[in-house]
Amino acid sequence: MAGDDLTRAGQRPARVGEGLLRDTGFVPTFALEPSLWTALERALEMVERDVHATGITGTLRLVIPDWDVGGQAWVEFRGTHHGNGIRPIAGSRHQLPPGRHEPRPLA
């Protein structure tokens, strides 16, 4: 991005920063953006209520296992997890850059 682009009238620094992050394909982690974890915890609370309504007992919880080098969240139930993990961006309302194929954000 040329210097003139950064100083164009009407562009705020936050908008420029968002553009740079988007253009470089940056996706935040749970450590950098704790609200993403919080959003997933709220969603899991709803799932847990539904599970309990069916008569299944036990606690669901979000964990990041030591063996997951990608830093994804996993839902743990009765000491085990299934699936492919949940990427941090799943807890966001923001769209991913074009060409990225992570799961769609929660509404």
Helix percent reads 25-40%
Which radius of gyration do the C-alpha atoms yield?
Answer: 18 Å
Strand order of the largest sheet: 1-2-3
Strand content: 5-15%
Which whole number gives the mean pLDDT?
A: 79
Structural class: alpha+beta
Element-by-element helix/strand order: HHHEEE
End-to-end Cα distance, whole Å, is 32 Å
User: What is the β-strand count?
Assistant: 3
Shape descriptor = elongated
Number of helical runs?
Answer: 3
Regions with pLDDT < 50 over 5+ consecutive residues? 102-107
Structure at a glance:
With 107 residues, this protein is of the alpha+beta class. The protein contains three helices and three strands, in the order αααβββ.
Task: List the keywords.
3 strands; 107 residues; alpha+beta
Task: Describe the structure in your own words.
- This protein is 35% helix and 9% strand.
- With 107 residues, it is α+β, with helices and mostly antiparallel strands.
- It has a domain at 28-91.
- The longest helix has 20 residues, at 34-53.
- Residues 102-107 have low confidence and may be disordered.
What's the SSE blueprint?
Blueprint (H helix, E strand, L loop, with lengths): L2 H5 L5 H12 L9 H20 L6 E4 L10 E4 L2 E2 L26
Antiparallel strand pairs: 1-2, 2-3
